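Exercise 7.
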Amino acid sequence: MGRGERISDLAMAYRLRWKRRRLLWRSFRKRRQLRCVRDETAQIRPDDILCFSTVRNEALRLPYFLAHHRNLGVRHFLMVDNASDDGTREYLAAQPDVSLWSTGHSYKLSRFGVDWLTWLQMKYGHGHWCLTLDADECLIYPYHDTRALPALCDWLEGQKRRSFGALMLDMYPQGRLSEYTYQAGTDPFQALCWFDAGNYAMRRKADLQNLWIQGGPRARMFFASDPRRAPTMGKVPLVKWNRRYAYVSSAHALLPRRLNHVYDTSGGELTSG
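Solution. The predicted structure, written as tokens, is:
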């Protein structure tokens, strides 16, 4: 790296450091938008794995979402309900391992719920392995059916890794989606067992140093004429949290940007979800 490149990299690091501070301050201010519905955080133990999520009208998906991640080893869920009217709030409030907050403020203006979750992560996630997911996402990783999340987190710590990356796979059934119905609590992957295996493109973003991955059925069906507009499919959902960390774009990238190094730079592979 030449002198000019070093100066440019230092300047970028300085700008991103201030960006992270602004995001943390923004989340601190947005804490006033949250109203506590049920606080069970006193039961959180120092070694517990936590899950954070913002939800709206997810009563159909939540029973399996909670069951799946409980089985993986999540010990406590910290959820924000954004003005649901389908029984989501009532369902979550009845769960013994869920702490719940509610808000009627704008999801978009909260950076799609990230501001609210960042505040909760600052307050409750420090020092814990934290999983950040949407209600329509289920974490899968190699040997997840025999090795729970605590084993994965122990292995990551042994590798000196504080973050774990994942590729989002859009799952779909064989045949028309309209031919299938879903019952709350059942395994959706009994029917949704197909995915696009190969039509993905990726590039490394220079600023955040994360992988920008695009592809899958959404890109194929809705962005075929302009694939660069397709949504990004890479995420960093599992992080050994520090109160100074902040997600930049949903769970797609974090600051400090070293947490986005969930890929191998020497041509090899790193374990991912």
